[in-house]
Amino acid sequence: MTEQPVRWTRASVYPDMWVDPDDDPRNLEEGAPEGELATLRDFIVNYRLTLVLKCEGLDPEQLARRSVPPSTMSLLGLLRHLAEVERDWRDWLTDGEPLPRLYGPHDADFDGAVADQAVVDAARADLAREQAATDAVLAGFADLGARVGKKRVVVREVLVHMVDEYARHCGHADLLRERVDGRVGQ
After folding, report:
1. What residues contact 108, with CB distance under 8 A and at least 6 apart?
2. Count of the separate structural domains present in the chain
3. What pLDDT digit, counting tens, does each position of 128-163 carry?
4. Are 64 and 74 in contact (CB under 8 A)?
5. How far apart are CA 140 and CA 136, in angstroms?
6. Domain limits for position 40
7. Partners of 183 in the beta sheet?
8. Which Pfam families match (predicted)?
9. Contact by Cβ (8 Å): 179, 5
Protein backbone atom coordinates (compact mmCIF):
# COMPACT_ATOMS: atom_id res chain seq x y z
CA MET A 1 0.00 0.00 0.00
CA THR A 2 1.34 3.41 -0.95
CA GLU A 3 0.06 6.93 -0.42
CA GLN A 4 0.17 7.54 -4.15
CA PRO A 5 -3.37 7.34 -5.60
CA VAL A 6 -4.01 5.17 -8.63
CA ARG A 7 -4.70 7.25 -11.73
CA TRP A 8 -8.29 7.02 -12.90
CA THR A 9 -10.98 8.84 -14.81
CA ARG A 10 -14.77 8.87 -14.70
CA ALA A 11 -14.97 8.84 -18.49
CA SER A 12 -15.86 5.52 -20.03
CA VAL A 13 -16.13 6.21 -23.75
CA TYR A 14 -12.77 8.00 -23.88
CA PRO A 15 -10.78 6.83 -20.85
CA ASP A 16 -8.10 9.49 -21.32
CA MET A 17 -10.64 12.30 -20.80
CA TRP A 18 -11.94 13.89 -17.60
CA VAL A 19 -15.56 13.30 -18.61
CA ASP A 20 -17.22 11.83 -21.67
CA PRO A 21 -18.05 14.50 -24.28
CA ASP A 22 -21.82 14.00 -23.82
CA ASP A 23 -21.45 14.78 -20.10
CA ASP A 24 -19.10 17.74 -20.49
CA PRO A 25 -20.80 21.08 -19.62
CA ARG A 26 -18.23 23.04 -21.63
CA ASN A 27 -18.86 24.03 -25.26
CA LEU A 28 -15.93 22.08 -26.63
CA GLU A 29 -17.68 20.37 -29.55
CA GLU A 30 -19.51 23.37 -30.97
CA GLY A 31 -17.93 25.56 -33.63
CA ALA A 32 -15.57 28.35 -32.74
CA PRO A 33 -17.25 31.55 -31.56
CA GLU A 34 -17.38 34.47 -33.97
CA GLY A 35 -15.04 37.35 -33.20
CA GLU A 36 -12.43 38.21 -30.63
CA LEU A 37 -14.79 39.22 -27.81
CA ALA A 38 -16.89 36.04 -28.12
CA THR A 39 -13.71 33.94 -28.26
CA LEU A 40 -12.24 35.47 -25.11
CA ARG A 41 -15.52 35.14 -23.22
CA ASP A 42 -15.85 31.51 -24.38
CA PHE A 43 -12.37 30.68 -23.06
CA ILE A 44 -13.18 32.33 -19.73
CA VAL A 45 -16.46 30.43 -19.36
CA ASN A 46 -14.81 27.12 -20.21
CA TYR A 47 -11.89 27.63 -17.82
CA ARG A 48 -14.30 28.61 -15.05
CA LEU A 49 -16.25 25.40 -15.67
CA THR A 50 -13.03 23.38 -15.76
CA LEU A 51 -12.09 24.65 -12.31
CA VAL A 52 -15.50 23.66 -10.95
CA LEU A 53 -15.16 20.20 -12.53
CA LYS A 54 -11.76 19.73 -10.89
CA CYS A 55 -13.34 20.36 -7.48
CA GLU A 56 -16.43 18.22 -8.07
CA GLY A 57 -17.13 15.26 -5.80
CA LEU A 58 -14.57 16.07 -3.11
CA ASP A 59 -15.22 16.51 0.60
CA PRO A 60 -13.92 19.52 2.58
CA GLU A 61 -10.75 17.73 3.70
CA GLN A 62 -9.87 16.77 0.13
CA LEU A 63 -10.58 20.28 -1.16
CA ALA A 64 -8.44 21.83 1.60
CA ARG A 65 -5.55 19.35 1.20
CA ARG A 66 -2.31 21.25 0.53
CA SER A 67 -0.06 20.41 -2.37
CA VAL A 68 3.49 20.07 -1.05
CA PRO A 69 5.23 22.06 1.69
CA PRO A 70 5.85 24.92 1.92
CA SER A 71 3.03 25.69 -0.54
CA THR A 72 -0.36 26.59 0.90
CA MET A 73 -2.07 25.83 -2.42
CA SER A 74 -5.20 23.65 -2.37
CA LEU A 75 -8.26 23.30 -4.55
CA LEU A 76 -10.30 25.18 -1.95
CA GLY A 77 -7.62 27.86 -1.85
CA LEU A 78 -7.88 28.19 -5.63
CA LEU A 79 -11.65 28.70 -5.41
CA ARG A 80 -11.15 31.43 -2.81
CA HIS A 81 -8.22 32.97 -4.67
CA LEU A 82 -10.15 33.22 -7.93
CA ALA A 83 -13.12 34.81 -6.16
CA GLU A 84 -10.68 37.40 -4.83
CA VAL A 85 -9.11 37.88 -8.27
CA GLU A 86 -12.50 38.30 -9.98
CA ARG A 87 -13.20 41.14 -7.54
CA ASP A 88 -9.81 42.68 -8.26
CA TRP A 89 -10.36 42.59 -12.04
CA ARG A 90 -13.70 44.29 -11.55
CA ASP A 91 -11.90 47.07 -9.69
CA TRP A 92 -9.66 47.55 -12.75
CA LEU A 93 -12.76 48.13 -14.91
CA THR A 94 -14.55 50.67 -12.75
CA ASP A 95 -13.98 54.22 -11.61
CA GLY A 96 -15.11 53.66 -8.03
CA GLU A 97 -13.12 52.93 -4.92
CA PRO A 98 -11.61 49.44 -4.74
CA LEU A 99 -13.81 46.86 -3.08
CA PRO A 100 -12.54 45.39 0.20
CA ARG A 101 -10.71 42.09 0.02
CA LEU A 102 -12.95 39.08 0.61
CA TYR A 103 -10.59 37.12 2.83
CA GLY A 104 -8.20 39.64 4.31
CA PRO A 105 -4.53 40.39 3.68
CA HIS A 106 -2.27 38.81 1.08
CA ASP A 107 -2.51 34.99 0.96
CA ALA A 108 -5.47 34.84 3.35
CA ASP A 109 -7.42 33.24 0.50
CA PHE A 110 -5.09 30.22 0.67
CA ASP A 111 -4.29 30.36 4.39
CA GLY A 112 -7.98 30.35 5.34
CA ALA A 113 -8.85 27.39 3.08
CA VAL A 114 -9.59 24.96 5.90
CA ALA A 115 -11.46 21.66 5.85
CA ASP A 116 -14.86 22.94 6.94
CA GLN A 117 -18.09 22.56 4.95
CA ALA A 118 -19.12 26.14 5.78
CA VAL A 119 -15.83 27.43 4.33
CA VAL A 120 -16.34 25.31 1.20
CA ASP A 121 -19.93 26.51 0.76
CA ALA A 122 -18.89 30.13 1.26
CA ALA A 123 -16.03 29.81 -1.24
CA ARG A 124 -18.31 28.36 -3.91
CA ALA A 125 -20.92 31.07 -3.29
CA ASP A 126 -18.27 33.81 -3.27
CA LEU A 127 -16.80 32.60 -6.56
CA ALA A 128 -20.19 32.37 -8.29
CA ARG A 129 -21.20 35.83 -7.02
CA GLU A 130 -17.90 37.47 -8.01
CA GLN A 131 -17.94 35.86 -11.46
CA ALA A 132 -21.50 37.07 -12.07
CA ALA A 133 -20.60 40.59 -10.93
CA THR A 134 -17.50 40.67 -13.18
CA ASP A 135 -19.56 39.42 -16.12
CA ALA A 136 -22.17 42.13 -15.50
CA VAL A 137 -19.49 44.84 -15.64
CA LEU A 138 -17.82 43.31 -18.70
CA ALA A 139 -21.18 43.15 -20.52
CA GLY A 140 -21.08 46.95 -20.64
CA PHE A 141 -17.96 46.96 -22.83
CA ALA A 142 -18.34 45.94 -26.48
CA ASP A 143 -15.12 47.66 -27.58
CA LEU A 144 -12.11 45.57 -26.57
CA GLY A 145 -9.82 48.54 -27.18
CA ALA A 146 -11.69 50.83 -24.81
CA ARG A 147 -9.67 52.26 -21.91
CA VAL A 148 -11.72 52.09 -18.73
CA GLY A 149 -11.44 52.48 -14.98
CA LYS A 150 -9.23 54.75 -12.92
CA LYS A 151 -6.05 53.34 -14.45
CA ARG A 152 -7.48 53.47 -17.99
CA VAL A 153 -6.84 49.77 -18.55
CA VAL A 154 -7.73 48.29 -21.93
CA VAL A 155 -10.72 45.90 -21.73
CA ARG A 156 -8.87 43.35 -23.91
CA GLU A 157 -6.02 43.29 -21.38
CA VAL A 158 -8.38 42.35 -18.57
CA LEU A 159 -10.02 39.57 -20.61
CA VAL A 160 -6.67 38.11 -21.69
CA HIS A 161 -5.44 38.35 -18.10
CA MET A 162 -8.54 36.42 -16.98
CA VAL A 163 -7.88 33.66 -19.51
CA ASP A 164 -4.24 33.50 -18.39
CA GLU A 165 -5.09 33.35 -14.69
CA TYR A 166 -7.75 30.66 -15.02
CA ALA A 167 -5.62 28.58 -17.42
CA ARG A 168 -2.66 28.66 -15.05
CA HIS A 169 -4.77 27.74 -12.05
CA CYS A 170 -6.61 24.98 -13.93
CA GLY A 171 -3.17 23.47 -14.50
CA HIS A 172 -2.53 23.68 -10.77
CA ALA A 173 -5.96 22.12 -10.17
CA ASP A 174 -5.05 19.18 -12.43
CA LEU A 175 -2.03 18.39 -10.27
CA LEU A 176 -3.85 18.99 -6.99
CA ARG A 177 -6.74 16.74 -8.00
CA GLU A 178 -4.40 13.98 -9.14
CA ARG A 179 -2.65 14.15 -5.77
CA VAL A 180 -5.98 13.91 -3.91
CA ASP A 181 -7.52 10.92 -5.67
CA GLY A 182 -5.57 10.09 -8.81
CA ARG A 183 -8.08 11.63 -11.19
CA VAL A 184 -6.32 13.22 -14.15
CA GLY A 185 -7.29 15.95 -16.59
CA GLN A 186 -7.72 15.52 -20.32
Report:
1. 101
2. 1
3. 999 999 999 999 999 999 999 999 999 999 999 999
4. yes
5. 7
6. 35-181
7. 8
8. MST
9. yes
